[in-house]
Write a structure and sequence with these properties.
Blueprint lengths: L2 H7 L3 E3 L10 H12 L7 E7 L3 H8 L14 E6 L4 H16 L10 E9 L3 H10 L5 E5 L7 H9 L3 E5 L11 H14 L3 E4 L8 E4 L8 E4 L2 H12 L4 H8 L7 E4 L2 E4 L2 E4 H10 L1 E6 L3 H9 L4
Parallel strand pairs: 1-2, 1-13, 2-3, 3-4, 4-5, 5-6, 6-7, 7-13
Antiparallel strand pairs: 8-9, 10-11, 11-12
Helix pairs in contact: 1-10, 2-3, 6-7, 7-8, 7-9, 8-9, 8-10
């Protein structure tokens, strides 16, 4: 595998197996994540995504599965919690969860886990500002914002709060997928304001194309964005590419158009060197949420990239 691709994919996928279209039960999702943590592709794995309302259910399913800290005491599961309608109550539950799972006395009989990020829906600047006042400093917020209209104002508010954006890139219907222009516009806005972001939903496949919306045999097909397209567009945006050309990156369907080598990645005369890719992934385009960990990997293997 080319080093440039490894930079791009490192800890990329936040596992959201509890969410549609997979919608797995908690026990299955927890066991899957444990298997991924010890698998050969663990280097691509990010956080486990869990709704705050299901933390008690998570605790039961994870009993006997969570790591105990290891010899160095630094082995633990990183979790991201999705908030409901009562943020104050959710923050209390997160604090209690972390108090229990982070401060256990050795030998950590129940295992170690930590919620270090929270995902909050916000449609108005006032909602973001109100939420920030409640958040503890040790919890990193991602604000999921609508992008069908110009998100510039919301992105500016997120920047002022030193927070992060969450961009929904698909769903269970064709209408849930933003246009390439809408996606390019919000990525460019985040780049301009230096706002880190994560993308979620509909990014199971590396390249833009037509795919099944669900895992049902009679599922409809729709044009979906590719995660290589999205994260490479983010890299290009961070280093000055405008929305018009970003749309072309997002609409690229030819796998051969993205060339990965030991020095970086190249797309139709545009280059991202290794330092750029590392900067993009560590400081700007941080993760994608996917209800499948295997499907993105299998598609990369079919393309001969893994």
């Amino acid at each position: 595998m080319q080093l440039s691709l490894k930079y791009l994919l490192h800890r990329l996928i936040d596992y959201a197996g509890l969410f549609p279209p997979a919608a797995l039960d908690m026990t299955t999702a927890v066991r899957n994540y444990a298997a991924y943590c010890s698998g050969e592709n663990a280097w691509m794995l990010g956080r486990f995504i869990v709704p705050v309302a299901r933390l008690d259910e998570f605790a039961l399913a994870a009993k006997g599965i969570l790591p105990d800290g290891g010899w160095e005491g630094d082995e633990y599961w990183r979790l991201s919690a999705s908030s409901g309608t009562d943020l104050a109550a959710d923050l209390g539950r997160i604090a209690a969860f972390n108090q229990h799972y982070v401060t256990q006395p050795y030998p950590h009989q129940e295992g170690l886990a930590k919620i270090d990020t929270i995902e909050i829906k916000a449609e108005q600047p006032a909602g973001i500002e109100a939420a920030v006042k409640l958040l503890p400093k040790e919890l990193i917020p991602y604000f999921e914002i609508p992008i069908n209209n110009d998100p510039a104002e919301l992105v500016k508010v997120i920047a002022a709060a030193n927070a992060r954006a969450k961009i929904r890139t698909g769903g269970l219907t064709a209408e849930a997928f933003p246009t390439a222009y809408e996606l390019a516009r919000v990525i460019a806005a985040c780049a301009e304001e230096d706002v880190p972001f994560k993308a979620t939903a509909g990014l199971h496949h590396p390249l833009r194309g037509k795919y099944r919306l669900t895992y049902d045999a009679d599922s409809a097909f729709a044009t979906m964005h590719g995660f290589l397209n999205v994260f490479l567009a983010a890299g290009f945006a961070q280093f000055g590419m405008g929305p018009e050309l970003l749309v072309e990156v997002l609409e690229e369907c030819d796998a051969n158009a993205f060339e990965f080598d030991g020095g970086g990645v190249h797309w139709r005369g545009n280059d991202l060197v290794l330092a750029h890719l590392r900067n993009t992934r560590t400081l700007f385009a941080l993760a994608l949420g996917s209800c499948s960990f295997n499907e993105p990997i299998e598609d990369l293997q079919k393309l001969g990239l893994l």
